[in-house]
Amino acid sequence: xxxxxxLKFLFTVTFAAFLANTSGCTTSVESMPLKEYAxxxxxxxxxxxxxxxxxxxxxLDYEVKYRLVNCEPFxxxxxxxxxxxxxxxxxxxxxxxxxxxxxxxxWLKTVDEAKVELSNGLLSIVTYEVDDKSRGALSQxxxxxLRFGTVSTPGAPNLSAxxxxxxxxxxxxxxxxxxxxxxxxSNGYLDKANKTKEKIIALKGTFIAAETAFKKDPSxxxxxxxxxxxxxxxxxxxxxxxxxxxxxxYTHKERFYPILxxxxxxxxxxHTPTIPRDLIVLWINVDSADTTRIDNIQTKLLDMIGIxxxxxxxxxxxxxxxxxxxxxxxxxxxxxxxxxQRTNNxxxxxxxxxVSFFQFGPLAAIPISNGLFxxxxxxxxxNDDGSLKSFxxxxxxxxxxxxxxxxxxxxxxxxxSEKSTIEKETALLKAEKERTxxxxxxxxxxxELEDVKNP
Length: 455
Hints:
The protein is 39% helix and 31% strand. By secondary structure, the chain is an alpha+beta fold. The strands form 7 sheets. It has a 4-stranded antiparallel beta sheet with strand order 5-4-12-9.
């Protein structure tokens, strides 16, 4: 087999070995759940090395105002309630990821840009632009192999808990129980409010009568009577408002995080906020240390004024372990029905609206990588709430064409090397012939010289 063919055969084997080794040298943006990071990386007591980001979840801010109506019989009315969805950062280990920057490059890559921007722990922008330099490395490898005669190949918190609870009266003294007994017996404060309300009703009648009389006879005397009736009515209204606001209205605020599983098919989540313990202590004469009695009262009040927060719909996807850590992870929210309804009357909801929930939507990943002979760019943007906004991808050259060009260039180097070798050998042969001819001429000259000496 000719020498050039032998070289081409050997290099084809070398080229195949090169591809086999470098095919595993793909770089990527690798994300790993913090929950699994210590196990996989075997760094149980070491701070995670990389960029930490979290996924969004939808929390519910619940606010309710209770109104004490009567002590005997004991009666509390639900004055007002609101349930507001808010997007927050999911701080669970399953939703916290670590990006390892060391996976973004290796010794065959030129990284033009690798950027990760966060906003309050949520991904905002991810950009990754890399050029694989295997083609040039392969050419240099061939030159080094030819020079040295060897070929070297490259190697390769619990979210179900309440996060924020605020309870208390809107204003006023919080140290006096309104009702003396558990379900009855007023200490006069509520009676005072009720009497003021009755007085307001009577003063409204006086005001209407004075207004009617003034319209019929707009005299000065009737005008004075109308002004007095109006002033008396406003005075009692202000007094009643202060009484109600001070001690007879109780505002409770709570934030909670809906999680799976739901209590029944079609119901993703159901939560019944408890009646605040402070409300019981402040409105009912009970020892704050008597937890058994307070619990019993809470149960009775739930039957009276309890509210259920219900989310209906179907689950698109629950938490699932990814098959690979390549890429960045995000949640796509799904829309579900959010209901607020009385515990004792679920048929007639207090409110109903459609709300997007991140935690009930699919967990997805966008693979981001740069392989052999590849020159590409990823640009991914997210909205403020953590949902996907845009995805852009550019492949700047065809990988097969780049690979074939690398092979062609390398074979060209071999051919040039063989040509150079032949030229060198030819020059050596020519020099050898010239030396041999010179020796022959020298011998001939020496023979002629001997003939002259010995005729």
